[in-house]
Structures are given as C-alpha cells and as structure tokens.
C-alpha cells in the first residue's frame, strides 16, 4: 500500500474513513495500457497537468519490480583469498562519492550484497542437493536389501559426503572475485562510498564483497608495503607519502579478553597471539607488525580508521551482525601484560566529531526497545489486528494522529485466507503431485522440483525465529490471571518449541513462478517446498507514518530470501472494477505477463519447466490481466506495506493447491537482510506519467519513501 497525505490530512481522523474519494486516480493495469495511450493522444494539451494536492489514496501498483538476473557463473571456484599484496588504495582520506554511470553508490552496494546472498544460497542449495542425493541413494540401496558393504566402500561413501563441503559464504566470495563482481576491490582510506554510518552487515563476507573490510577472518584490514609494487604504479597510488603498513579498518567483536569498548572511546587489543578456538584466551605474545604496526602508523600520520562493531544475532548465519560506527583516530598505543600473562598491544581510538550519532546500541540492543507486554507499547491502538487468525499477533501503533485512529475504524476486516467474488470459482486445474515421503529431498525424482527447473526453489537453514514472540506477551500473568499461570506457561513452551525446532526456509532467487507441493503430494507439512504455506513467522507491527499513512515493520531480523506474507483480499475480475472509485488496494495478478516480458517487464520464463497443460495458456496470453486482488475492505497485513524506490522486498508468484497461473498466489519475499524495526517496502512499479485520471489527464504524486536514490515521484 502507498497512502500519501498532506500535513493537514495526516492530522485528521477522517483520513481513513473517507476512502471513496472522487479524486482517486485510475489504477494503471496491463489490460488498459493501449486505451490509456489513446486517451493521451486525444488530449488537446500534450503537457502533463501540474501536480495537484495529493489525494487521500493512490492506486495499486501493476507491474512488479524488475529483479535483475545475474549471468550464469562457473561453479569451479577458486579459494577465497583477499590478498592485500595486490590491492590498491584510494588516497582520498575523506568520503568518495563517485559512482558508476547510471547507478548511485548506495544502489551499487545493495546490488552487490544481493548478488552475494544469491550465490550464498545457491551454494547451500548445491550442498543440500548433494547430501540429499547421497541419502536417497543410501535408502534405495537399503530397500533393495543390498549385501553388507566392504570397509573400502564405506570409506568411499564417507569421503563423498565430506567432499566439497566448504563454507558457502567463502565460495560466494570466491565466485564474485573470479567474475569481477566485487565492489571496491581497491583498498581505500576513510569512508567507503555507499556505506553510511549505521550500515549493518550480517557477516564478514558481506564486508569483503563491498570492499569495506577485505579480510573475512582477521579483525584488522591494512595496506601493506607490497601494495606499492602491486598492479599499479607507485606514483598513481600515491602511497609514497605514507609510512606503510597503514590500517584502514578494524572489527570489534570481542575476540580478545582485553578489549574495552565505550562507544566513542575504544581500547582495542591488537592482532595475534589469541586462541582461534573461540575462547578469546591469549596463548602467545603479540608483535608490533602488520595490522598492529599499521595502527601505530595511523596515529603518527593522523589517518582515520573505519570501526565496525559485532554483536550477537542468533538469526544471522554467522551468529553475529556487524554495524559500521564511523571513522576513529588512533590517539595512543602501548604494550602491557594481558590477562593471560602474555604481551598484548593496546590502541586507544576516539571517534571523529561531526559524524552521525552511533546507532549500534539503538538497533542491535532492541531487546530493550521491543515491549514484552501490551502496557509497554507506545501509541497502541489495536492489540492484534488479526483477531487471533495469524500464528503471531500483529499490533497497531499510532504516534502521529491526535486523537489516534485505527485502520479498523474504516470498516476494514482482517482475513487470513483468500475470498472469491460470487462469479469466480476456486480453480480446478489440480496438480498431479509428487511421490516423495516425509520431505522432498531428491530433486532428481521429485515431480515438483522438475517443475521448478530441476531444483527445489528453497533452501533450509537451521535456527527458526529465536526472538521472544509478541503473542506470548499476554502470557505474563496479572494478579487476576495467577490461577492460570501454569496453563499459560505450558502454552508458551509449546509455541516456543515449535519456533525453535522449525528451520528457516529461504527462496534462493526470484523466479517467474514457484511451484510448491500441494494437496496431491505425498510429502508432509514440514516439507521445504511448502514454505509459502506456513503463514507469517515474523513479529510484524503496523505503524502510522507522518507522510505515508500506515506502514509495516518487523521486530525480528529477517534473512534475505525469507517469505514474509501473502497478499490476501477479495479475488475479483479486473474488468468489473469501478475505475472511478478508489482502487488503492487492488493488486493485479500479472504472473503471465511477467513470464512473457510484456509491458516492460523482464521475462523470467526460462527458469521454470511448465507442464503441457500450462504451456498453451502461456502461449495464448494477451496483455489483459483477468484477475486481481482487492484488499480495500478485507485483507491481511500485506495491504499496509508501503512503496520504496529502493525496496527490501520483492513480489513472487506461487502455485500450490492449483495450477491456474491466472490466479497465482502473490507472496512478498525479503530481497535483503532486514534488521529489526526497518520498514518493509516493495516497488509499486509505476512508470512516470503512466497514471491517467477519470478526466483523461496525467496524474502526479510525490514520493516520500526517503530512499537515497528516491525518484521523488511515485508516478
């Protein structure tokens, strides 16, 4: 949803009540592209009308955000080695704002991280497929009653299981280095373009691929003397002015028992001599060399150092999250005997003035900000908008309006499952189903995997949602509830056990269509290929924004590829819409048009294998979109998700209970690793000057998404 208001409208309690406004703009749909163009040609004045005061609502997007596809890459990966010997440096000590042609620096960082996450999940998928095939072969061999294996055969099978079992994040780094898709491969002093103070990385590997900290293991990244004789001339690098080595970034992650971090003033323990087993204990003396010497040289030459802080994050695949806290200067260093009796070097760093305030504690110590009971929620206007329909309660807060209003005040009714108009029946094109038992594992035999191009669309990661769910906040008993305390605790334990024991299933990459297992499949409900049917698994909150109406954010960390929610509402025929009325919450099911690349969409038909009964439908498809989802009066949390020019969600069409592409499910999936309390957004996909009002004139609406590369206009 995108709801934009003027300041006066934002303070009025009637905003949500007056939905049917005569100024509502006409929703742009694929079926109406040609007719709209014809209206433009008939207008006597070709210039678009000037921007008028913003209507109370805007129209639903029609085409999904284009998701760029990366070229097919070689799977033969080299070892992950980020060598400072061949790295060069930018001699600009301050922030560099240069960007590649056509793309801003922030967009480049986002695209690079998305490419990394895609490769990372692909390598997890490769390993899952390999192990799944081995397990399936073993079971078939057992069922056939094969003879006892020899010791040599057992050894060969064990070696096969261990082979290629390399860390997927390092394989992703290696792949991107090999193809030249890493960002900022040349080391630089000072800030890195596109990485602002407060930026969060969800692994050290992410820092490597954007050129922020080019050591995936070491806590100090530095430029060594060998950089002078690297691939560029000394004069071009301008390194002769520095006494090398010089340290360019450090990561504070509690790897040493002597670390002391007071945010603006840091006592940092140098590198070397610690036990790599993870107990932080020193086992030998440190030396004033490499990164340690680089910190000393930074102090002597007044060179800034980038400082990153690592904090525990159970849902991150490395168990930590890393936040960039800005530039620091080294003001002092000394050697002393550490806690374990060995010599350690200490460096005192002070944060440079004039930088944005620290956000590490604000963002990643959110346990103190996230309420544990209803009484702690500021601006609460609805305890649970779902009325208990979802697995997890979704509260609604409003700190903007006075008096505060609720979306339920406009007659909106929350529903969990799709409703159908009277003249629409549930599709009868039923899938045949797979014969997998328990959970689909062997993509060579699974019929549903074959529909998805030969692989399962999801990968499974252990962990589940480890945060304390809001819905158990009611389980904190009052005096009146004390008699029920043990019953409530039992409910809480059952619920938490379900979350802890359930793995996180992630979509590897955007596809034109995802075929999930359906009612005819033999696999169970925990099958990885039923991920989109499991409902919401994250603690979401609907909140009021100053200029965009209602928005949605998560209290939990959401990993890239995680399905968030389905767009639910009333399924209607597009031709029956009243185009003079408000269609702000109408979502076109344009899966077929996207598969064929119509109306400017990027075709993604190549990544699925359609069954014969669907191939004819795809071939005969026209520009019309026969069905749409109307969530104006009935819908779910998805209707409140706002637009952004740099979104963190993308739209994915899915099929499971039926195979009617014209009525495919619309699912929102995380495009990035999304930190807690970050608003969830997707691109509504409007082209500028593409929306025509009932009067035949081009409509304009400002965009308030706040993205670094905002287009300033929604349409």
From TrEMBL:
<feature type="domain" description="Pre-SET">
    <location>
        <begin position="432"/>
        <end position="535"/>
    </location>
</feature>
<dbReference type="InterPro" id="IPR007728">
    <property type="entry name" value="Pre-SET_dom"/>
</dbReference>
<keyword id="KW-0489">Methyltransferase</keyword>
<dbReference type="InterPro" id="IPR046341">
    <property type="entry name" value="SET_dom_sf"/>
</dbReference>
<feature type="domain" description="Post-SET">
    <location>
        <begin position="699"/>
        <end position="715"/>
    </location>
</feature>
<dbReference type="GO" id="GO:0008168">
    <property type="term" value="F:methyltransferase activity"/>
</dbReference>
<keyword id="KW-0949">S-adenosyl-L-methionine</keyword>
<dbReference type="GO" id="GO:0032259">
    <property type="term" value="P:methylation"/>
</dbReference>
<feature type="compositionally biased region" description="Basic and acidic residues">
    <location>
        <begin position="34"/>
        <end position="44"/>
    </location>
</feature>
<keyword id="KW-0158">Chromosome</keyword>
<dbReference type="InterPro" id="IPR003616">
    <property type="entry name" value="Post-SET_dom"/>
</dbReference>
<keyword id="KW-0156">Chromatin regulator</keyword>
<feature type="domain" description="YDG">
    <location>
        <begin position="190"/>
        <end position="351"/>
    </location>
</feature>
<keyword id="KW-0808">Transferase</keyword>
<dbReference type="InterPro" id="IPR036987">
    <property type="entry name" value="SRA-YDG_sf"/>
</dbReference>
<dbReference type="Pfam" id="PF00856">
    <property type="entry name" value="SET"/>
</dbReference>
<dbReference type="GO" id="GO:0005634">
    <property type="term" value="C:nucleus"/>
</dbReference>
<feature type="domain" description="SET">
    <location>
        <begin position="538"/>
        <end position="685"/>
    </location>
</feature>
<feature type="region of interest" description="Disordered">
    <location>
        <begin position="127"/>
        <end position="167"/>
    </location>
</feature>
<keyword id="KW-0539">Nucleus</keyword>
<dbReference type="InterPro" id="IPR003105">
    <property type="entry name" value="SRA_YDG"/>
</dbReference>
<feature type="compositionally biased region" description="Polar residues">
    <location>
        <begin position="8"/>
        <end position="28"/>
    </location>
</feature>
<feature type="region of interest" description="Disordered">
    <location>
        <begin position="1"/>
        <end position="76"/>
    </location>
</feature>
<dbReference type="Pfam" id="PF02182">
    <property type="entry name" value="SAD_SRA"/>
</dbReference>
<dbReference type="Pfam" id="PF05033">
    <property type="entry name" value="Pre-SET"/>
</dbReference>
<protein>
    <submittedName>
        <fullName>Uncharacterized protein</fullName>
    </submittedName>
</protein>
<dbReference type="GO" id="GO:0006325">
    <property type="term" value="P:chromatin organization"/>
</dbReference>
<dbReference type="GO" id="GO:0005694">
    <property type="term" value="C:chromosome"/>
</dbReference>
<dbReference type="InterPro" id="IPR001214">
    <property type="entry name" value="SET_dom"/>
</dbReference>
<dbReference type="InterPro" id="IPR025794">
    <property type="entry name" value="H3-K9-MeTrfase_plant"/>
</dbReference>
<dbReference type="InterPro" id="IPR051357">
    <property type="entry name" value="H3K9_HMTase_SUVAR3-9"/>
</dbReference>
<dbReference type="InterPro" id="IPR015947">
    <property type="entry name" value="PUA-like_sf"/>
</dbReference>
């Amino acid at each position: 949803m995108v709801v934009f208001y003027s300041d006066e409208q934002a303070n009025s309690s009637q905003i949500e009540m007056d939905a049917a406004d005569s100024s509502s703009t006409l929703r742009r749909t694929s079926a109406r592209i040609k007719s709209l163009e014809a209206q433009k040609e008939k207008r006597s004045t070709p210039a678009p009308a000037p921007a008028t005061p913003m209507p109370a609502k805007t129209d639903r997007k029609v085409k999904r955000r284009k998701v760029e596809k990366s070229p097919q890459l070689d799977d033969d990966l080299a070892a992950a080695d980020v060598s400072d010997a061949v790295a060069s440096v930018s001699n600009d000590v301050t922030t560099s704002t240069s960007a590649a042609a056509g793309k801003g620096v922030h967009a480049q960082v986002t695209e690079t991280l998305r490419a990394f996450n895609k490769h990372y999940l692909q390598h997890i998928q490769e390993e899952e497929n390999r192990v799944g095939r081995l397990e399936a072969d073993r079971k078939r061999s057992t069922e056939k009653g094969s003879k006892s294996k020899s010791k040599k055969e057992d050894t060969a099978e064990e070696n096969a299981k261990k082979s290629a079992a390399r860390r997927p994040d390092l394989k992703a780094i290696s792949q991107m280095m090999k193809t030249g898709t890493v960002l900022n491969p040349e080391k630089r002093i000072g800030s890195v373009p596109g990485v602002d103070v407060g930026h969060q990385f969800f692994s050290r590997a992410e820092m490597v691929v954007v050129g922020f900290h080019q050591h995936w293991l070491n806590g100090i990244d530095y430029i060594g003397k060998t950089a002078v004789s690297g691939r560029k001339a000394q004069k071009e690098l301008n390194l002769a002015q520095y006494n090398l080595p010089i340290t360019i970034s450090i990561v504070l992650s509690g790897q040493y028992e002597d670390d002391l971090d007071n945010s603006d003033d840091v006592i940092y323990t140098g590198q070397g001599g610690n036990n790599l087993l993870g107990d932080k204990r020193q086992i030998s003396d440190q030396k004033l060399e490499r990164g340690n010497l680089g910190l000393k040289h930074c102090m002597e030459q007044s060179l800034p150092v980038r400082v990153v802080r690592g904090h525990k994050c159970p849902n991150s695949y490395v168990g930590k999250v890393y936040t960039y806290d800005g530039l620091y200067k080294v003001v002092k260093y000394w050697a002393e005997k550490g806690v374990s009796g060995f010599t350690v070097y200490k460096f005192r760093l002070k944060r440079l003035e004039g930088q944005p305030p620290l956000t590490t504690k604000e963002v990643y110590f959110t346990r103190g900000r996230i309420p544990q009971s209803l009484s702690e929620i500021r601006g609460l206007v609805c305890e649970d908008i779902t009325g208990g329909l979802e697995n997890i309660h979704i509260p609604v807060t409003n700190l903007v309006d006075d008096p505060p209003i609720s979306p339920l005040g406009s007659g909106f009714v929350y529903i969990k499952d799709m409703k159908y108009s009277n003249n629409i029946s549930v599709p009868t094109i039923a899938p045949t189903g797979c014969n997998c038992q328990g959970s689909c594992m062997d993509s060579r035999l699974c019929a549903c995997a074959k529909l998805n191009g030969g692989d399962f669309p999801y990968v499974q990661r252990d962990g589940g949602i480890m945060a304390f769910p809001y819905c158990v906040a009611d389980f904190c008993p009052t005096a009146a509830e004390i008699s029920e305390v043990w019953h409530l605790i039992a409910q809480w334990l059952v619920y938490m056990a379900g979350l802890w024991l359930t793995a996180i299933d992630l979509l590897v990459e955007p596809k034109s269509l995802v075929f999930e297992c359906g009612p005819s499949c033999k696999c169970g409900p925990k099958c990885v290929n039923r991920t989109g049917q499991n409902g919401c698994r994250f603690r979401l909150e609907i909140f009021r924004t100053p200029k965009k109406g209602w928005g949605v954010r998560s209290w939990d960390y959401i990993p890239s590829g995680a399905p968030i929610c389905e767009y639910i509402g009333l399924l209607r025929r597009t031709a029956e819409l009243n185009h003079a009325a408000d269609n702000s919450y109408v979502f076109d099911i344009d899966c077929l048009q996207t598969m064929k690349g119509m109306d400017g969409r990027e075709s993604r038909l190549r990544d699925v294998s359609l069954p014969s009964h669907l191939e004819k439908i795809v071939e005969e498809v026209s520009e019309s979109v026969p069905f749409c989802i109307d969530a104006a009066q009935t819908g779910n949390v998805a209707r409140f998700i706002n637009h952004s020019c740099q979104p963190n969600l993308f739209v994915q069409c899915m099929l499971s209970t039926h195979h009617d592409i014209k009525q495919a499910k619309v699912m929102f999936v995380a495009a990035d690793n999304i930190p807690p309390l970050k608003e969830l957004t997707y691109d509504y996909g409007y082209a500028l000057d593409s929306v025509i009002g009932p009067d035949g004139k081009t409509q304009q609406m400002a965009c308030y998404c706040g993205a670094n590369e905002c287009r300033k206009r929604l349409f």
